[in-house]
Amino acid sequence: MTPQQCKAARFLLSLTPAELGEKAQVTANTVRSYETGAVRSHAASVERIEAALVKLGVVFLEGTAAGEARPKKVLFEDGSGVELAGWPGR
User: Fold this and answer.
1) Which of 20, 90, 87 is CA-nearest to residue 50?
2) CB neighbour list of residue 81: distance below 8 Å, 6 or more residues apart
3) What are the helix and strand counts (H, E) for the chain?
4) What is the pTM of this model?
5) How many C-beta atoms surround the C-beta of residue 20 within 10 A?
């Protein structure tokens, strides 16, 4: 899971960083820091965040190599989702 996918999935689920943090048993600051890349997040924290999002129904698809023009995607198991073409990661 990339920071951009995390933020997009959180947005799609209408969760605040605090709400996702609670579900992942991490702080809201940990969620925000991971999404912005402000600090390097601990692998265990990222795994908890990803596991919480997956438990909520998010399916993360792997993208292609950096620099290739392929949109990132976040899809839910029911087939709904969104493609994030040109996602700026903000």
Assistant:
1) 20
2) 12, 59, 73, 74, 75
3) 4, 3
4) 0.70
5) 25
